């Protein structure tokens, strides 16, 4: 999409073919302005270089690319996270998992975040609870690089491990295991819609029934949990009962599900039997 030099910031803010919030985000990114700057410099005319940069960003968005990938940032749990195409975009729904973990985390607690991606969960936990010992693993080196940058940015003490689930942490134990694993079933229509079209497939789907990663975690976690330690997992909107059944079948206590802000059972967990 093409824009011309001389257009004012105010005219562009009202005239871009996107939702108002997206207009503002892309304008700020292209012009190097803050939200306040959009107001104080509303009558400033843009240069041709700025017009070209803005046009390229808008074209990417009109093609469907997520805003978070275009600007390379997304807020999560009050923190600004780097995101790239190597990781899922952190979503507000996942903040419920962080809140539940913080409520149950003992002083100096040891936490394992499985499939950390951008590190959003692990960094949020370590940033909020400076006393915690947080380990985060992922099979993807590219994802771990993003997580490492986010940990450094926020001064969060997170140990990062490349591992295919429990493979690289044999013999280690934790007070809590948390995970937002791939849980969309292969062939689900959502995978070809919206932002999901651009996100890494391996972080979205298990290429099976949507429960295989959850089964692996539920089965393997007891060997890595202290007695009474919690396992908390995010899952799909219609999977809560199945995940509760998995936890119960593997002998977990206090099995329960918790609802997100939309009223959907989004996180399910249980405690390793004492």
From TrEMBL:
GO biological process, one term: methylation
Domain of life the protein comes from: Bacteria
CDD domains reported for this sequence: AdoMet_MTases (cd02440)
A Pfam short name: MTS
Methyltransferase recorded as keyword: yes
Database matches in PROSITE patterns: N6_MTASE
Name of the featured protein: Release factor glutamine methyltransferase
Species of provenance: Massilia soli
